Amino acid sequence: MISIIIFGCSNSISDNEKIVKFSDGKSVKINYEIRDIEDNEKVLVVEYKNEEKVTKEKTVENQVLEIWKAVENEANKLEIEEGIIKYEYFAGENKKTKEAVFKPILFSAEKIENGTWKIRKVN
To answer: Of 65, 47, 49, which Cα lies nearest the Cα of 109?
Structure first.
């Protein structure tokens, strides 16, 4: 439900790019922005498009954790309590147009009482 609010009815406060280096040595570019959703509540929205086909769910989960780690300080500094990570992966090619097809997986990040973050898959 929160992803509908965030992606559908929010105002962007800032838009940034960052290079994230995964533990396997691969460097990728992510986009992130802070969105104001209601009553001055802010959410950090992170987007990553993986141009490669992903075959292991564990690989996606590990990459999402590494992506969040790269922006976690920004969230903490701005006292943000929630985040959304939109991870798009290459799902194949459209047979008619030959264009690349990407599918999203959404993850939520929630700051818990002890100050750490809980990341979970939403869809």
So the answer is: 65
Report which of 52, 61, 63 is spatially closest to residue 21, judged by C-alpha positions: 63
The 10 Å Cβ neighbour count of residue 40 is: 6
Q: Does pLDDT of 60 surpass 50?
A: yes
The alpha carbon of residue 10 and the mean position of all alpha carbons in its chain are separated, in whole angstroms, by 16
Token pair 């040595």 in the structure block, residue: 25
**Reported pTM:** 0.82
- Domain map (residue ranges) of the chain: 2-121
Instruction: Kindly give, in sequence order, each residue whose CB lies less than 8 Å from that of residue 16, ignoring residues fewer than 6 positions away.
Output: 31, 32, 33
If pLDDT is split at 50, 70 and 90, which confidence band does 36 have?
confident
